[in-house]
């Protein structure tokens, strides 16, 4: 996807910002794809008023801005400026963290929708808070590492920045793995002993759970890739070819966005302001529980 690049005037302290020439066409394509995705989700948000999907849209904007940064860098090869490099590095690292935040909040609302609080490993009043704590912590750890990497002038400072980012990514993987366990245990329990609501509600809640699983797996694979990428070091094989970031990051995050466009949570969970959730094809019953 890109040719190799040698150290030149674009380097900081003797280290090249990229070990390849960024591909302008690929970056432009994903800028367009993520902008279209963000606009589609913005339409869905305005239609269904599911405000907890605002972080998801923000994450898509981060993705678009990240590939815009790579697009700018591609036009500067081989004399890259630090600004666009830092922009793409930070936003592409942090974007999926924001996608995950909305996914965490969605599970808690789904559990409450089905009146199945007793089947959650974590009390639903705490479920969103626990995972958002992990998400926000990961966000700030990665931000700190990215900031250090952006100002690195020596190999030791570059290594330290990468180690901090790796730590933040591992933290994210641990919390996301636990989230997947919570979702699976909840699903297993409600299948074994369905609640009355789960049997009568006229929405495809099980299909939506499978969408949550698929999105979670995609984000997990992306995060594991990023851990491997930074663990391998600045000159490691995963940072020496641009192909990997488009396969294991850009494509996976775009598919994640597409899954929620096709099966948006607003289709099965209307906002509190609308005051009801359809329980059959012909009648709606009031549902006014306060979500966390």
Automatic annotation (TrEMBL):
Assigned keywords, A-Z: Membrane, Transmembrane, Transmembrane helix
Compartment(s): Membrane
Segments crossing the lipid bilayer: 25-43, 50-69, 85-105, 126-144, 164-188, 208-225, 245-263
Membrane topology field: Multi-pass membrane protein
Record-given protein name: RTA1 like protein
Species classification: Eukaryota, Fungi, Dikarya, Ascomycota, Pezizomycotina
Pfam families on file: RTA1
A single Gene Ontology CC term: membrane
Keyword Transmembrane attributed: yes
Major location category of this protein: membrane
Keyword Zinc carried by entry: no
